[in-house]
């Protein structure tokens, strides 16, 4: 397992990096959900939904390896769009990062919630291993919560 990961606020200079990571990390899952891949459309939608003040960059050994968004809603922290760059996936970084987020949520007595595409079985089992349970579902998503 890698050691700690560093988390910092995202800036305008990170937008290209995040766009590229998002498109490469999510292409398979979005294609499986929609039945087609339109990169220009996904890029535009990503930029529309990107809320820089709520977005953080994950770094490991001085390198950007991914990003995620969190939005506070009442007693819950909603985790959005966690993406680790494909070249850095399955090296334990996501697990280390989530450990830090869970610890922070516990310390602040907040719940941690997220939505995951139904086709994204890898992410679903990743979250299940971290103690998230299914609470709801919509057409394309499962809703999951980490009890605190
Ligand atoms: C899901 C994700 C955030 C996990 O981060 P990570 O750094 O790759 O995770 P870890 O290396 O800590 O992996 C932990 C476990 O998650 C599961 N997992 C992660 N990626 C997987 C993959 N591509 N296929 C199958 N299982 C996978 C495995 O159980 C893995 O354990 P293992 O490697 O011992 O089998 C990352 O793979 C990612 O960004 N994926 C693409 C984008 C995405 O799906 N984001 C989630 C949106 S809700």
Short description:
This protein has helices at about 15-35, 40-50, 95-105, 120-130, and strands spanning about 5-10, 55-60, 65-75, 75-85, 110-115, 130-135, 140-145. With about 150 residues, it is α+β, with helices and mostly antiparallel strands. A seven-stranded mixed sheet has the order 1-2-3-4-5-7-6, with helices on both faces.
What does this structure look like?
Helix 1 packs across helix 2 (39-49). The chain is 37% helix and 33% strand. It has helices at 15-34, 39-49, 93-107, 121-129, and strands spanning 6-9, 55-60, 63-73, 76-84, 111-117, 132-137, 141-146. It is globular, with a radius of gyration of 15 Å. The protein has a single domain (6-146), classed as Gcn5-related N-acetyltransferase (GNAT) (Aminopeptidase, 3-Layer(aba) Sandwich). A seven-stranded mixed β-sheet has the order 1-2-3-4-5-7-6, sandwiched between helices. Residues 25-26, 29, 82-84, 89-95, 116, 120, 122-123, 125-126, 129 line the site of coenzyme A (COA).
């Amino acid at each position: 397992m890698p050691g700690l990961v560093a988390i910092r606020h995202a800036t305008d200079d990170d937008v290209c990096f995040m766009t590229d990571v998002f498109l490469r990390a999510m292409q398979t899952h979005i294609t499986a959900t929609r039945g087609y891949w339109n990169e220009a459309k996904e890029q535009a939608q990503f930029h529309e939904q990107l809320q820089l003040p709520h977005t953080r960059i994950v770094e490991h050994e001085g390198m950007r390896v991914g990003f995620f968004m969190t939005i506070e809603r009442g007693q819950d922290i909603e985790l959005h769009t966690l993406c680790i760059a494909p070249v850095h996936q399955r090296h334990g970084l996501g697990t280390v990062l989530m450990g830090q987020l869970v610890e922070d949520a516990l310390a602040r007595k907040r719940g941690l919630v997220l939505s995951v595409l139904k086709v994204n079985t890898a992410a679903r089992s990743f979250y299940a291993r971290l103690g998230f349970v299914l609470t709801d579902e919509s057409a394309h998503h499962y809703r999951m919560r980490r009890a605190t």
